[in-house]
Amino acid sequence: MPFQIxxxxxxxxxxxxxxxTEYLLEHTETGEFLAIxxxxxxxxxxxxxRKGHHLFALIEAPDSPQALAADESYASAFLYPFPxxxxxxxxxxxxxxxxxxxxxxxxxxxxxxxVHRQPFSVVSQEVTDTHAQLVLRYDYAGDTFGYPFPFALxxxxxxxxxxxxxxxxxxxxxxxCALRVSYTAQNTGLTRSPAAFGWxxxxxxxxxxxxxxxxxxxxxxxxxxxxxxxxxxNLIPTAKGAVQAEETLPLHERELNxxxxxxxxxxxxxxxxxxxxxxxxxxxxxxxxTGEGKLNYLVCYTPPRRDSIAIEPLTANVDAFNNGEGLAxxxxxxILSGAMWVRLD
Length: 345
Description:
The chain is mainly beta. The protein has two helices and 28 strands.
């Protein structure tokens, strides 16, 4: 069968004695593949997909153990039990006050949860005629300062034939693969817990005939219908703006660090954001499930280097532990789950 899963050593982190292992999910006939490091937050380090006769490397992530250890951009990180920021790291839940570690010191916020960099274990691997699948899990005992709520977070990566996705279409989709990422967070404690999830990939275009990344100034981004969310100087929400229709924005000299509430579309349980390369015309599509308890928020961020753009699906607004916007409250045994996907068109 054309799909396979292999492993290779990735190297040693400066503080470790055992090398990291990288898992490769590949389509041997098209050359498309994913590269995942379970022991380092289950991050997606490489994503290579095909459009026509060309392969495109699409993910900006650290390329060495040393770069992993030094990275502060949360490249490809899963964000749980909260994405984005908690103001001053302080929140109240079920009549109790809690204080999280403030790891964004310049703005005095707690940032992006704490599963980033944590070791995930490999639960299962599967290869069929239509996909390669890797299931990873991280179990948390409730012992991090400010969040005494145990959970199990399971991440499932799939490299799939694009025509098996339930979403979207393409004229030559039968010859293409896509990435599908699903998550399940379960409250494994004895009390209710607050929960929100996000994913923080940085996207770029590197064509197989090129050696450099395409700058975001040579791209456009198409957003779904949304309500923009205003942010203060510390990037904490202030107010929700009026609904805006779908729009395409040129990224030339445009800086983004924006939060959007995705507007629901009748009879549609998903939303897609499109990043287009002006140079090649290739469109990268980032999809997310929407609806009750799903990924109804979106963050777009252009880092100063401008060689990539973060397109981040979230289940909740920034500071959701305080404003409650999109926040899930899980009963013991309760589950927060959903799916995201990336494809070329």
